Structures are given as structure tokens and as C-alpha cells.
Amino acid sequence: MNSIMEKFDKYVMHSYGRYPLVMENGEGRFCEDENKKKYIDFGSGIGVNSLGFCDEKWSDAVCDQVKTLQHNSNYYYTAVQAEYAEKLCETTGYEKVFFCNSGAEANECAIKSARKYSFDKYGMGRHNIITLVNSFHGRTMATLSATGQDVFHNYFFPFLEGFVNVNANDVNDLKEKLDDTVCAVMLEYIQGEGGVNALEQDFVDEVYRLCAEKDILVIADEIQTGVGRTGKFLAGEHFGKKADITTLAKGIAGGIPMGACLFGEKVKEVLTPGTHGSTFGGNPIACAGANAVIDRLNSDGFLDKVTKKAIYFRDKLAKCSKVESVSGIGLMIGITLKSKSAGDVAKKALEKGLLVLTAKNKVRLLPPLTIDDSEIDDGLDILIEIMEEE
Q1: Is the model's pTM score more than 0.70?
Q2: H-type helices in 24-138, by residue range?
Q3: What is the pLDDT of residues 24-37, one digit of tens each?
């Protein structure tokens, strides 16, 4: 075994099933291992490296900030956090934002905020949050309890109460469970870890209609779908919807740990001093990276190009005889295979110099938003060859 892997496995907790790759450096849409073998990246660190590896403008922004101010307590102000908050709110149309360090933390903030909104207005007993079967919202106790997949509900008993699961796209199930104990419905427009499955428009419409009637909040978990991944800054734009609360992370800062919880008009004042906090939330280095990402995404024609790349991917995949179907929106792509195992395909792709992901029984692709057509061609040539092997 590689000496680095041996050291890693000796000292790092075995909480991940890791592929045998020691990544040493990266540039653009490619990375190299310690033997200088090159890999095309179709996973972007599970959607985190939104601008690819070590983008020049992003790197310069982060390095400049490191040399200026690396951290300050949230008891004080910084220009870089104020600048990013303004850009993010103006881009998304939200009123306020709370910064944290991860998607799970952003969802924790959303859960607490929804319950406080309801408590402030209606008092005790209206605290349940509906989440969808097959959802995934994080690994903390609250977000794990919110996650609608039995496979994750083990070992850590007792789980937190106050979460009710509804079958995705089942309006009758939703209506039956949307009672006076509910303060929010939490959904992913595209269930990422659940298999890259987009919700149906009619179901989303009913969620918003029913919640509006009952003053129940809608929380959109856009940890994986947000920040340009689908060709829109927020996936909710595809559905013509804006949730009361939206959570972001993954690609938000281009590789620096960061999460954000966005608040609309109804809930913009719900968090008051002392009700929530984060030591590292809004860290200057993360905000510098996030400013570079949002500037790129807001540049003329960038998201239109993401959409064109997504169409290019899907058109090429549709021509593969071993592909049964392709799901998702934009550059969030799930591939259902007719016979092969997604896990086996991912392992063979690694051997041939291509990094892909899996989700349930699907091959999952989350390439950097900056990938170009020639890189798509090179990666898909490898992937399609593997899928079509007898």
C-alpha cells in the first residue's frame, strides 16, 4: 500500500470508503496524484470546486485575504463579509443571510429559525417540520433526523423528534400530514444523495400553495443545487419559486468551507442576538473566495454557458447504448445504467483517469461549472467506453 495511504489509515478515522487516489495538486478541471498521473474531474469535490482547481482569480482573492486578515470574531464587522452579503442577497432576492461553515450547519440554522418563527407567532406545539422521503439534509443529529432515508437512521438513537416524512411528489400524503403541528416543509428541488431526482412541478406548486394558506414556511435545501449548479443561481428559479428560507454550501466559496442561510421578508428578523451563532461563520477567507465565485457566476453569459454545457453532456450520454436514462437539471447529472453497477463504473473510471461520483444506483456527475467542451468530450469518451464494455 502507498505510504501516504498507510499513514492516513493509521491516524484518520475510517468514516469514509475512500478510493485509492492520493491527490497532490490540481489546476482547472484536472488534478494529479503523487505519481503525476492526471485525472479529469467530473465530481468537483462533490460539487464544491465550482470554478475548478485553483482558479487564478479565486486563488488571488483568497491569498490576498490570507495576508490581510484571516479571522475575526463576529462581535466585529469586516468589509469582505459585508460585500459578499450584499452580493448574495441582491443576486438571490433575499433580505438577510446568516453565514456558517457547512451545509449541515446551514440546515440546522434553517430548522431553528423556522421553529422560532412559529414559536414567536403561535407559541408552543407548532414545531414539526415535514421533509421528503429520500431526502438528505446532513450528518448532525438534527439534520440526520430530518433526512428521509432509513439507511441513515441507525446507531445514533434516540433521534430528534419533530420531523415527519412525506413521499416526494405525493400531494395526498402531503395534505394528510400538513396539520396544525407543522411549522415548515423542507425540500430539495433535486434530491442529490437520494439519486439526482428532480421534484415534479405540480407537487412543488402544491407545497407552496398549501404552506401559504397555513402560514407554514418553505425551506429549500439548495446545498447541492444552488450557486449555479443547475444553470440558474438557485434551482428554485426553474420551478418559479422562492422559499422563505434557502440554504447554500458546497460550491459557494469555491473550495473553502462555508455555508449560508438566506431569509426572506417573513423571517428576516427571526434570529435575534444570542439565539444563534457561529465562531467561524463569515470568515474573511471564505468570504473572499465566495466573492470570487459570485462575481464569476454573475459575469455576462456565464450561467447560459452552464446550461449549454449541460445540454451537451446530456445529448452525448443519450447516445450511449448502455444508458437507460439521465436525470437532474443542469450540471447536476444522474445516469441510470441498463446493467452495470455505478460503483464498478466509478472504480474503472478512476483507473482510466476520470473522477466521477455515485448516488444510489446512479453514476453522478457534478463537474466544475467552468469545464469546456473538449474536457467534456475527453471525460465522456472514457466514461462511455467503460459503460459500453461487455
Answers
A1: yes
A2: 44-47, 56-66, 79-92, 103-122
A3: 999 999 999 999 99
